[in-house]
Amino acid sequence: MRALLAHLDTPEVSEKRQQLPCSHGGYGTTYVSSVLDIYSPDSLPPNEATRWCRVPALRPAAYSVLTEVVEDTLAGQYWNSAIFAMTTLSKYNAPGCSDLLKRFHAFSMQPAKSINGAQHPGRPTLAQEKQHAKELTARKHQTLNAVEQLLNERDAACKNATLEEDHQNWLKRFLVIARDYQ
User: Fold this and answer.
1) What is the DSSP annotation of 32-71?
2) In terms of pTM, does the model score above 0.70?
């Protein structure tokens, strides 16, 4: 997450970011677009990084965020959206993805009661992780494109959504504070 936030401040990325279509129909920061259409705070980094993978210049930062989400999960800090992160890394054949997918598959085969020795409050069964890991390993087209399809559907649903200017300004200020928070 920090890698993506740090990457926001570079002049090259800032210029490219302003050219990206947002899910609310305008142009500008993709953070604003994803805040409008996320379902949980846990999904923000993987969804945003997936959007960034669409732009070749932004992929290295996106890969870093996605890898961090999966690595955190493998280390015992479970992210519900690790499946989405792993799917996007696999779709784009990110560097190191094959090894990470093997480790993610092994992780998904663990007993659900213990994720690296720790009980997760959400008590994940890892059934989805198992299924996704198998399908990603098989390079199943439908699975590889699942996250992109979901985001495309969200984008289409948000095309006509509007946000009043004062709310846009508040959200932009909030995101600057969140980015600069150490």
Assistant:
1) HHHHHH-SSGGGHHHHHHHHHHTSGGGHHHHHHHHHHHHH
2) no
Among the listed residues 29, 43, 14, the one whose alpha carbon sits nearest the alpha carbon of residue 172: 29
Beta bridge partners of 27: 21
> Quick check: is 174 in a domain?
no
Residue 27's SS3 state is strand
The pair of structure tokens assigned to 33 is: 């677009």
* 63 falls within a domain: yes
| Residue closest to 105 by CA, chosen among 87, 126, 130 | 130
From first to last of its 182 residues, the chain has per-residue pLDDT tens of 444 445 444 555 555 545 444 443 443 444 334 333 434 445 567 778 888 898 899 899 899 989 999 998 898 888 888 988 999 999 999 999 999 999 999 988 887 655 555 555 555 678 888 888 899 999 999 888 888 888 888 888 878 777 788 888 888 888 888 888 76
- How many independent structural domains does the chain possess? 1
Angle (CA) 46-66-4 rounded to 5° is 80
Where in the sequence is the domain holding 9, given as residue range(s)? 2-167
Q: For tokens 């090894």, name the residue.
A: 99
